[in-house]
Amino acid sequence: MIRGIFTCFCLLLGLALAGQKQVFIDRILLPGGNLLEGTIIDTPDTAFVHLSLLGSDSTILIPVGLIEKIEVDDKGKRMLVNGNTIPARGWYGGVSLSFLSGHSYLSYGETKRQSLSLDMEAGYYVRPWLTVGAGVAFDYYDEFIMPIYAQSKVLLTRWSNTPFLRLQVGKGIAVERMFNREDFDKSYAGWMWQPTLGIRLASRRDQNLSAELGYKFQRFTTDYQYPDDWWTIREVERITYKRVVMRIGFTF
C-alpha cells in the first residue's frame, strides 16, 4: 500500500512539473480608469511599453505618454483577472488544523482513534508553482508526538483556485519522554512521511485558505522494562501509526 501511494504521488508530481510555466502579472493603468494586465517585456524601446496580455499570446505596444501608472509585480504577489491575490515568490508562513483518523493496536485489541493535529510551517516560493519549507506538528496517537519535517508543494495549475500536491518528510519526538518518565518506560518516535492532495482557495487579500486530504505514517517504538528481585523483563514494541488526514490551512 505504501509503495502504491508513493508511486501515484511521484507520477502526479512529474505530470505537474512538466506542465508548469512561470508567469508574473503586471498592471498598466490608462486614462479613464482603463486597466491592462499582463507581463511587461524588457526591450530597449523607450517610447513604448511592450506588454504580453494576460491569457493571450498577443503582445501590444503602449505609448509611454498614455500610461498613467505601472504596477510592477515586485512584492512577491501576482494579480489575477478575478482580483484574487496569490503568492508568487518570496517567504510565506502558514498554520493548519488536521483531523486524524485510524486504528490503534492496544494490548487488549484494536480500536478506532480520532484526534486533532496542529501544524505550523514556513517556506519559500522557489517558483510560483513550487515551494519548499519546514514545519512542526503536534499529533496525538496513543501519546503525544511532535514531528519536525521538511516539505515541498507543487501547484498543479496557474488558476487562483488550484489543486496541489504536498509531501512532508521528517522525524518525530516523543513529547512525554521530555518530562518525568521512569527509567524502565521509554518511548522513541521515528520517521514520519505524509503525502496529500489539496486545493488552494485564493482570496482578495494577502491570505489564502487550503483544504487537503492525505495519509500520514508515523513510526514509534516503546521500550518497557519490568524490574523484579532477580531479573528484568524487557519488551520492545515497534509501531507504524497510519492515519487518514483531513486538513484546513491558512497561508499568509
In short:
The protein has 252 residues and is mostly beta strands.
Q: How would you describe this protein?
A:
With 252 residues, this protein is mainly beta. The strands form 3 sheets. It has an 8-stranded antiparallel β-barrel with strand order 8-9-10-11-12-13-14-15. It has a 5-stranded antiparallel beta sheet with strand order 4-3-2-1-5, with no helix packed on it. The longest helix is centred in the first third of the chain and has 17 residues, at 2-18. The chain has one helix spanning 2-18, and strands at residues 26-29, 35-41, 48-53, 59-63, 69-71, 77-79, 85-87, 90-106, 109-127, 130-140, 144-155, 162-174, 185-201, 208-227, 232-251. Mean pLDDT is 79; it is low at 16-22. β2 (35-41) and β3 (48-53) form a beta hairpin.
Instruction: Please state the overall shape, judged from the principal axes of the Cα atoms.
Output: rod-shaped
Number of E-type strands: 15
Instruction: Evaluate the radius of gyration.
Output: 25 Å
Percentage of residues in DSSP E strands: over 45%
- Could you give the distance between the termini? 35 Å
Helix percentage range:
under 10%
Please state the average pLDDT score: 79
Order of helices and strands: HEEEEEEEEEEEEEEE
Structural class: mainly beta
**What profile does the largest beta sheet have?**
8 strands, antiparallel, barrel
Q: Name the poorly predicted regions.
A: 16-22
Number of helices, counting only DSSP H or I runs of 4 residues or more:
1
Identify the strand order in the major beta sheet: 8-9-10-11-12-13-14-15
